[in-house]
Each structure stands twice: as C-alpha cells, then as structure tokens.
Amino acid sequence: MLVKVVDMMQNVFHNKNFVLVFLGALVSNIGSLFYSFAVGYWILDITNNNAVIQGIYLGACGLTFVLFSLFGGVLSDRFNKVKIIYICDYLKAILIALSSFIILFSNNNLTVNLIVLFSMGIISNIIAAMFSPAAHSILPLIVEKDQLQQANSYKSVLSSVQAILGLVLAGLLYSLLKITTLFFIIAICYLLSAISEMFIKYEYKPNENKLTLKSVFNDIKEGFQYINTKKALSTLLIIIIFINFFFSPITNNFISFFIKTDIATNPNYLFHSFINPEMWGAIFSIAVSISSIIFGIILSMRTIGKDAGKMIKIWLLAVGILTLFLSVSYFIFVDKKDLLNLFLIIFIVFAFILGMILSFINIPINTVIQTITDKDKLGKVSSITELFSQGLIPLSSFIAGFVISYLGSSTLLFVCSVGFLVVAVCALVNKSINNFE
C-alpha cells in the first residue's frame, strides 16, 4: 500500500506557523490564478489569436524561471526563507501595479503592451525563481516529519479550492473589467499575502560563509552532488523533465487556443446562453480541482508508504493513457465530425480523472523529497527539482506555438500524448525508483 492512516488527533493546523503559511498561500495563489488566467487570454486577444507569439512568451518566461531557479535555491539555504518569501510578494505587488499604470496610459498600443507583457513576465519569473525554493522548503522547518504529507495534502486542497473559486471569479472579472483593473486586484492580493507572511517564525541559523560568485556555483554543484547520492530521486527527476515536456503544451498552449478558436467560433457551444467562451478554461480547471480536493483530503489522513515509487509510476502510466484518449477524442469529435459539445463533456470527465491521479502523484513526490532531504539542503534540492520539472517546458511551449499554428491542435495533442506514454512506459520498467531512501 502507498499509505497508512494517520492519527487525526495530531492536526497540522494546531501549528501557528503553518496557519500563517497557509493563509499567505491562500491570498498569494488567488493573485497568481488571476494573473495566469488574465495573461493567457489577453495575449491572444491583443495579437488576434497568434499562437506563435503566445508560445514565444511562454517560452521566454519559462526559460527565465529555469535559469534563475538554481540561484534561488542557493539564496534560500543561505538567507532567511521567510524574508525571501515576503520580499518577493512585495516585489510582485509593485511590479504588477506599475505594469497596470503603463498599460492604462498606453492607449491600447500593441507594441507597448507586448513590451510590458514580456518585461513583466520575465521579471516576475526572476522573482518567482527566488520565491519558489524558499516557499517549497519552509514546510519541513515548521512542520513535524510525520505531519508533512498532511501539510502537503492541505496545501493541495487549498490550491484546488482556490482554483474553483479563483478561476470562476477570474473568468467573470476578465469579462467584466479592464485588464488594468484586474492587475490592480492581483497586486493587492500579493500585498496582503506579504503582510501575512511577515509573521512566520522559524529557527534561522545565518550562514557564516561569505556569499561570492564562486560560493554560489559551489553551492549549486553541491546540490547536484547531493541529489546524485539519492538514486531514486535523481532518476525520478530525469523522468519528470520529459513528462512535463510532453504534458505542459496541453495546459499552457492547447487549452487557451482551443477556447479561442474552437469554442469562441462556434455559436452553439455548450452553455453558450449563460457563459462566455473563456469560462470553459475555468470549468476544466474546476473539474481538476474538485477531484483534487476529494483525494487531497483522503491523502491528508495518511502517511507515505515504502512503495511510493511503484505507485507513482503506475499513476504516470494512467495519465499517459488518459491523454492519448483525449487526443483521439479531439481528432474524431472536433476535427472530423464537428461534435464540439460531446468533446467538451469528454474533456470535463478527463479533467476530473486527471485531478485524482495528480493528487496521487504530486503529493507523495513532494512529501518524499521533503522527508529524505537534509534540512540544510532543502532550498538547493527544491530549486534543482524545479529545474528538472520546468527545464524543458520553455522549449516545449515555444515548439507547441509553431505546431498549433502550422500543423493544428490535433497534431500537438497526438505528439504530446504519445511522447508522454513512451516516457511513462520507460519509467514503469525502471526499478531504481521503486523505493526511496
């Protein structure tokens, strides 16, 4: 079995620091959801559904995050993680507020708006690369080891609840408000989050070694060497980099383009009488989130088992099969038979099942990494994990933009699903990640 029941008398919400992290994430993630939703559709709106520009934007932002994430891990292990977290949220608030002012006075100038969009995307991803390792590595320092899966499960449930409420609200606000007004709301969310995070306390021990460029690269090297000693983890990270390469174009490129070109151009799409096309992006995410809430709660009552690696491999294979089914369905019901509404129903079911499976993949992976990693290396390991999980996403987003534009959505879905399935099969036959230690 992957898990066993936990003594529910030991609830992680009795931990004040976890509550503060939880509340900070609550507000910050709402801002992040609003931002991702708004930018995803706004770039297609102002460029007349140009998937190439969308792909270049996603690729540039992703590449920035990947390049700077390793430095974020080094800083996270050397400096106070709490300060890094709230300073980054303050910076995001300032950046987005400033960008909204520039857009407001640009008179809808496409060039100015694209410059602001790309600049904001690149700078915000530099900030995110500093924020993410600190945020991901703070839990093991404020939560007991036997409560880590519970804490990760509650955070997963939180993200899912936010996705339901936040995306519905984001869809409504995007259709009702100007992009500048929505950006102001996002800036306020980050500001409130930063204020909450300032009260988090943990035992911080300053690093006595002076920070130099040489020490930074030595720390990065040390992180890779440390991960190399964890064979199961290093193998899993290699698998993840290719898994995300094939899966990310579906969520980053396909969904928004599908909504803008297939749903928005069909006057009789499902529920057209009371929702706008962009709300379908929220519906898909809500289906994932509802499922994630259910199974996140289930996992919050359990602890990680010794066979976590085996179960993760099986669930990855299930995602591959599910994704292949989605690509075949799109080809038959959208490309060939013009049965868009039937495909929309299939997509909702797909999203619900996907949410369940992702809960049984992501929560155990996060818990295992936090459990087996030495506390003084949590930041570096977290940043390297981000590097592997995000490493090829910029390239895949960039390529996906051209594939959709010149070969169509069916080709993109088929290539992504087959590629994912091949990687999942390779993972299944690999025995090195059967047990983590």
How does this model look, in words?
There is one protein chain. With 437 residues, this protein is an all-alpha fold. It has 15 helices and two strands. The chain has helices at 16-46, 51-78, 81-104, 110-137, 139-142, 148-176, 179-197, 213-228, 231-263, 279-300, 308-336, 340-372, 378-390, 393-407, 409-429, and strands spanning 3-5, 302-304. The longest helix has 33 residues, at 231-263. It is globular. The two termini are 17 Å apart. Residues 1-9 have low confidence and may be disordered.
Structural class comes to mainly alpha
Distance between the termini: 17 Å
* Fraction of residues in β-strands: under 5%
Number of helices: 15
H/E series, N to C? EHHHHHHHHHHEHHHHH
Mean pLDDT: 81
The largest sheet has its strands arranged as 1-2
Unreliable stretches covering 5 or more consecutive residues: 1-9
The main β sheet shows up as: 2 strands, antiparallel
> Shape from CA axes?
globular
The count of strands amounts to: 2
Round the Cα radius of gyration to an integer and report it: 21 Å
Which bin fits the share of residues in helices?
A: over 70%
Features:
437 residues; mainly alpha; two-stranded antiparallel ribbon; 15 helices; 2 strands; globular; disordered N terminus
Secondary structure elements and their pairing?
Blueprint: E1 3-5, H1 16-46, H2 51-78, H3 81-104, H4 110-137, H5 139-142, H6 148-176, H7 179-197, H8 213-228, H9 231-263, H10 279-300, E2 302-304, H11 308-336, H12 340-372, H13 378-390, H14 393-407, H15 409-429
Antiparallel strand pairs: 1-2
Helix pairs in contact: 1-6, 1-7, 2-4, 2-13, 2-14, 3-4, 3-7, 4-13, 6-10, 6-12, 9-13, 9-14, 9-15, 10-12, 11-12, 11-15, 14-15
